Amino acid sequence: MYSFDIERPTSVADAVAALGADEALALGGGQTLIPTLKQRLASPSKLVSLSGIAEMKGVSQDGNTLRIGGGTTHASVAREAGAFPALAALAGNIGDPAVRNRGTIGGSLANNDPSACYPAAALGAGAMIVTDRREIAADDYFQGMFATALEEGEIITAVTFPIPAKAAYMKFEQPASRFALVGVFVSQGDAGVRVAVTGASEGGVFRWSAAEEALSGNFSADAISGLSLPADDMIADLHGTAAYRAHLVSVMTRRAVAAAG
Fold first, then answer.
1. Which pTM value belongs to this model?
2. Contact between residue 179 and residue 199 where contact means Cβ atoms under 8 Å apart
């Protein structure tokens, strides 16, 4: 590690001001940034910790909408998001207890790891990403592997989820990291059926439109039994070939639909 300054603001406004400094980076739970610093893949002059901002924490419900503060840990989401059981279950299966008690939903979505679970939930449920400047629909937010619509210094202050009538998330875990080798989030709500896939594509999280169309007419695992995805754009690594991941997408989608239904 090397020397750097750290600032701990207690309000979003103060955090935004602190991030205006040259080479300043926001620090959420640190589950990605700290290892990155240790490997010297980033060298900010200042870290702005968001962990002391009370207004960015907690889970609340307003009618059919669940609002989760950007600084809310995975463990808190698992405990407090009972109105959206699929989301609570997803959060409770991220990493291990140490990760769940430090990592935050805002940090995960800001990083947009191609194998992370929350991007599938946000895209699969049609969530809204709320920042200190604006609201961004999930369909517009995710822009590729580790790429988002966030501008420099922009902070995710909350995420709002419409609570669907049916939803489930199924993840085929990479056993060492517990990231998704393939994960599929399926929901059926007022806006129709949504199917979001993480862990599989070189382009990051994506919606499987063919499966959505099939499930819109018949929300059952049988409706997608004949569907498959091409392996062309799938990730291929030591954990699985592109064809293997494409096959897993179909398998996990059927399992998610069966669990939701």
1. 0.95
2. yes
